Amino acid sequence: MVSRVIPVDTFDLVIFGGTGDLARRKILPGLFRRFLSGQMTAESRIIGAARSDMDDGGYRQMIREAIAEFGGAEKSDTTGLDAFIDRLHYVPIDATGDGGWKALSDLMRADVVRAFYFSVAPSLFGALAERLHLHGIADAHSRIVVEKPFGRDLASARALNETLAAYFKEGQIYRIDHYLGKETVQNLMAVRFGNVLFEPLWNNHYVDHIQITVAETVGVGGRGSYYDKSGAMRDMVQNHLMQLLCLIAMEPPSRFEADAVRDEKLKVIRALQPIAAHHIVRGQYDAEGDDPSYRADAENPRSFTESFIAMKCEIANWRWAGVPFYLRTGKKMKARSSEIAVVFQDLGHTIFEGDVARHRNILSIRLQPNEGIDLQVTIKEPGPGGMRLVDVPLDLTFADALGEDGEDVPDAYERLIMDVIRGNQTLFMRGDEVEAAWSWTDPLIEGWEARSDVPKLYEPGSSGPEDALMLMHRDGRRWREIKA
Q1: Predicted confidence (pLDDT) at residue 480 exceeds the cutoff of 80
Q2: How many angstroms separate the most distant Cα atoms in the chain?
Q3: Is 209 an active-site residue?
Q4: For the whole model, what pTM was predicted?
Q5: What is the rounded average pLDDT of the residues 143-160?
């Protein structure tokens, strides 16, 4: 199935930090794929801006090499690559001074969409926003894209929101979380609100519990000093897992529009109950063979920062009262896997004998790898010998259904950047949403810091600490197996 591509308006996209790792690995290769798909007009331009002293030619060569290294099969299209590279420009710029801003202003066009991607440290957001206005580069119709972290607590998040609000309206600010750009995450809304089959069952009358897992096989080596100041709670739960929780639990919005969707997500965050200490498990991966421990990777032998966290959450509203949401995420786990599993309740009565009461319907939404959705249903095992039941999945793997090898499914960054150009904020976080998430998160962090809690050690390649298994076992449940 070939996806239908709708071109966006002609734009000038300025990428501050245009020589950085994110720009080279994700943003520019993604834009190249959108160019090849026909979604970018021939007149659209991409302007890199950074401290490095180079010209257009040097930048074009850098991005050509980045696409050769990080691009997919599309990088073999040399004709398309040449045409894309011709649309790149570069301006050396001083984010906190005056250098380069006049050149950038002269390069911008007045009759196109102007978007500015802040692929830099949050400490530079204010300086960039101020200079965009001081030099008349941004106007009331311009858009800015900001990467996480959106603060490290409520106070810093509020300060960051106030800084951006001094120069841009909320409708111009796009807080990007690449998880929300994944095809499966958006299909979660389509499954819920586009099918009569599921929404009537999406409540505490039919759902036993929900599990959200984001497992990674890599450690924190190479970014240990940053991660040690953050931890799994700040790095993953407060943003990525919180967003998945909101989408799975929110009420149907009145319209599929940005503020209608985000209003419902905000209600979920505000309905989250405080979590008792015994419903949170924190862990650190240990050393194994030649592989270093978390503390060695973080270069902090006394670190109490968690590389793993599991928790039991509850939402205080009519739909979800009594339904636990189990969240877990960690580094150096047995497989790279992100999944939302909606586990439905047992049958009220069964006509079959044996262990059939343990068969359950489970809706599994796989975010990575192999994006897709499957519904576990119970059927009769083929063959003679009586009524033997077996669970089988009704499987929709997007790579199979939507194009060979998933070639027609855009990467998360591609989709979200195109949404910025369209002016569609549905898949971006709003300022009050960010602050509400920190309002719930801060007391949890303050609690374990006050108790001087020490994370539990776990073996690399495992499913996390034993205490995380007990978190579920105490409730008579178990985590789903982490599969690649």
Answers
A1: yes
A2: 82
A3: no
A4: 0.90
A5: 92
